[in-house]
Write a structure and sequence with these properties.
Probably involved in ribonucleotide reductase function. The chain has 122 residues and is α/β, with parallel strands linked by helices. The protein is built from 4 helices and 5 strands, in the order E-H-E-E-H-E-H-E-H. It has helices spanning 11-16, 51-60, 81-90, 104-121, and strands at 2-5, 23-26, 37-42, 64-71, 94-99.
């Protein structure tokens, strides 16, 4: 399974490198994805989707099958809000919201969520 990620402070990058069994691809300007993928991104500002993530999705949204998002709980109701927006806009499951680089438990929850998505789509 392909996991595409966007990171600013490297928290998302640290999280995805804890995962096993995924091919990882960091978002960059020319990235074109032509297969199903899970997106892992972060929340910026007061709950906004990062511009790099938004630009990537404009070109590659056809193949997104799920999203997870990093955030910081100090933002209260804005915690991980970009995941809610992406899930709603592209009608894909929000797998998990995790804080900063996530914990072992966050990794387990994420991997179980991906397993459920893959199981439902087969």
């Amino acid at each position: 399974m392909l996991l595409v990620y966007d990171t600013k402070t490297r928290n998302v990058e640290r999280f995805v490198h804890k995962l096993r069994g995924f091919r990882l691809q960091k978002i960059h300007e020319q990235l074109q994805v032509r297969e199903p993928f899970i997106l892992v991104t972060y929340t910026t500002g007061f709950g906004q989707v990062p511009e790099t993530t938004r630009t990537f999705l404009q070109q590659n949204h056809r193949h997104i099958i799920g999203v997870a998002v990093s955030g910081n709980r100090v933002w209260g109701s804005h915690f991980g809000k970009s995941g809610d927006a992406i899930s709603r806009e592209y009608q894909v499951p929000l797998i998990h919201k995790f804080e900063l680089a996530g914990t072992k438990k966050d990794v387990e929850i994420f991997q179980q969520g991906v397993y459920e998505i893959v199981k439902q789509s087969s």
